[in-house]
Amino acid sequence: MAAITRLVKRTSSLPCAARRFLSQAPPHKERNVQWVFLGCPGVGKGTYASRLCNLLGVPHIATGDLVRSELASNGPLSSQLSEIVNQGKLVSDEIIISLLSKRLADGEAKGETGFILDGFPRTIKQAEILEGVTDIDLVVNLKIQEEALLAKCLGRRICNQCGGNFNVASISIKGENGRSGMVMAPLLPPAHCMSKLITRSDDTEAVVKERLRIYSEKSQPVEEFYRSRGKLLEFNLPGGIPESWPKLLQALNLYDYEEKQSVAA
């Protein structure tokens, strides 16, 4: 009920893909939204997907988290995953699908309804398999300037005590040659986390650049897969969270009542 009081949907000016979702989606009591977030590694899929999950009352399922959880578990796939991640390569379809299938089954058993998938699908094969398993209402493709993206990836930090995600990069890009400028403030941790920050082992410049190259090569067919089905909503991040969050809500035709009340106070 809390999610409903925070959320207002205005259908009159909704983008085509999102408007189709509202007209075709089953009633709220049957299930909630089933969305996918696409975008380069480090673009902020996790940040924005998590915020929307809190707003809509659905679970946030990030394939990156599933991989890291398996790595930490010393399970049957952990050694294979460790080598893949440290080399900056993408995890295979078979491994990702195995991890995701288990997560979806666990969620269904707990009575979860709806979801936002973060980082999946990454290939046409994955998209086709997902389409055969469940209905996807809307696919949000986040984009950002490459210079800002690299800085964001290298600035990522994790608190090794609470597990919080932060970013120490302070980004300021001048607008030139028709390109918009961009300013992004760092997302710093609270004081008690500052001394506990660690960098992910795969967040080095060489690994990040290789990861982005591979993603760019593989992402276009997936984007076209959903574009051809009228489900793709492309969103260019104009800056950090303060600039991008309200515009993303506007693009999705959503309204965060609690956040507006907090700002007004």
Automatic annotation (TrEMBL):
| Cited SUPFAM superfamilies | P-loop containing nucleoside triphosphate hydrolases
Question: What PROSITE patterns does the record tag this protein with?
Answer: ADENYLATE_KINASE (PS00113)
Specify the superkingdom: Eukaryota
GO function term, MF aspect, one: AMP kinase activity
Q: Which InterPro entries match?
A: Adenyl_kin_sub, Adenylat/UMP-CMP_kin, Adenylat_kinase_CS, P-loop_NTPase
Keyword field: Kinase, Nucleotide-binding, Transferase
The EC number of this protein is 2.7.4.3
A Pfam family name for this chain? ADK
* Catalyzed reactions: AMP + ATP = 2 ADP
Keyword Nucleotide-binding assigned? yes
Keyword flag Kinase? yes
Q: Cite the record's note on assembly.
A: Monomer.
* Protein family: Belongs to the adenylate kinase family.
Report what the protein is called.
adenylate kinase
The protein's organism comes out as: Sphenostylis stenocarpa
